[in-house]
Amino acid sequence: LPSSERRPILELPDELISQIAAGEVVERPASVVRELVDNALDAGATQVTVRLQAGGVRLISVEDNGWGIHRTELPTALKRHATSKIASLGDLESVHTMGFRGEALAAICSIAEVSVLTRTDSGDEAHGWLLDGRSGELQPTARGPGTTVEVRELFFATPARRKFLKTDATELAHCIEAVRRHALARPEVGFAIWHDGKLVAQWRAVAADLAGGGALDALRQRLADGLGEDFIEQAVAVNWPADAVPGETALADGVQRLRVWGFAGVPDAARSRSDWQYAYVNGRFVRDKVIGHAARSAYEDVLHGHRQPVYALYVSLDPTRVDVNVHPTKIEVRFRDSREVHQAVRHAVDAALAAPRSAAAASAQA
Ligand code: ADP
Ligand code: MG
């Protein structure tokens, strides 16, 4: 089409709108994995099983034991801007779920073959339902409560995207990393990943007893499973403010104050790459300059050159004080007051790094 002429303004067809949206959200198989695991966790799942074929390009299947989707709502779940997670602008200002845009399933349907197998946990139906995303056909089928979303032949309709994919091994590694990011924030949920019929990663559910620092113990266990003993053996516990119960996000009065907890590696554990820097805001994995800078500044005097500190830091704050609707993949957030977050993270990591030294000094004096 010549670009030098004025052309009529047309409304794009729905399918094309979804494909454009998919371009923002789905870069590679790991993006689909992330969205589907988000949904499983939002549905209260305690066990999530991911099955992949050919690095996820041929098949991505995510099975959960969450509360399922009611038959009458199943076709709506695949529509654009259809969500059970927000209903008003007010809800958007205080998001408590991983999802809220109602775009992921519709976007994925526009670039792959999707089917959803689900049964609610309400016990009012004797079987589940299978929805074929392409035909819209709904069939009764056997399964226990929960949902399985199957995505086949990703990017079949967009060969340009398909060409950007790397080898199966590389795509698999990205998929595993996507699940790991969820797993490190949810020790009480079990995860398993299968690739071409082989179990490639498994993180068993850890019993979380929130009383008396149990959340840090559960987290320690999950970090040891998810990142390896090396990570945790060289890390110190982070908990700020010092009198807060780690992992407890709201006080008895329901008020959510700013908190930071997790584990930070001792300076000797620093690496040449920044691959072991995990930051979460209200349970969501983020790439955040404020948190990154604050953590880095706590290591200022003890790390030299380009050594990268390692950490898994969990920031929780009142959801009205953070905007999660700034990026289609929600990997970036905007704090209402980034200074308070920066100071909290800085103090939290400072205190954690100072603690073992002062303990050692105290025992040396005794
Ligand atoms: P969002 O997560 O932003 O709401 P999605 O397109 O990812 O949008 O999902 C649309 C809706 O489908 C969700 O709001 C939810 O009600 C339902 N849904 C999707 N996946 C699951 C699942 N695994 N278990 C239960 N409900 C689900
Ligand atoms: Mg979602």
Supply database-style keywords.
11 helices; ATP-dependent DNA damage sensor activity; Heat Shock Protein 90; nuclease; DNA repair; 33% helix; DNA mismatch repair protein MutL; mismatched DNA binding; Ribosomal Protein S5, domain 2; 2 domains; binds magnesium ion; alpha+beta; five-stranded mixed sheet
Explain this structure:
It comes from Hydrogenophaga aromaticivorans. This protein is α+β, with helices and mostly antiparallel strands and 366 residues long. It has two domains: 190 residues, Histidine kinase-like ATPase, C-terminal domain (Heat Shock Protein 90, 2-Layer Sandwich); 155 residues, 2-Layer Sandwich (Ribosomal Protein S5, domain 2). Helices cover 33% and strands 22% of the residues. It has eleven helices and 15 strands. The strands form three sheets. It has an eight-stranded mixed sheet with strand order 5-4-3-6-2-1-7-8. Strands 9-10-13-11-12 form a five-stranded mixed sheet, with helices on both faces. Strand 11 and strand 12 form a beta hairpin. The relative contact order is 0.11. The model has no long low-confidence stretch (mean pLDDT 92). It binds adenosine-5'-diphosphate (ADP) and magnesium ion. The site of adenosine-5'-diphosphate (ADP) has 22 residues, from helix 2 and helix 5.
The tally of beta strands, per DSSP, is 15
Distance between the amino and carboxyl termini = 83 Å
The proportion of strand residues reads 15-25%
- The share of residues in helices is 25-40%
CATH topology of the largest domain: Heat Shock Protein 90
* CATH H-level superfamily of the largest domain: Histidine kinase-like ATPase, C-terminal domain
Strand order of the largest sheet: 5-4-3-6-2-1-7-8
> What small molecules accompany the polymer chains?
adenosine-5'-diphosphate, magnesium ion
Protein name: DNA mismatch repair protein MutL
GO molecular function, one term: mismatched DNA binding
Family: Belongs to the DNA mismatch repair MutL/HexB family.
Keywords: DNA damage, DNA repair, Endonuclease, Hydrolase, Nuclease
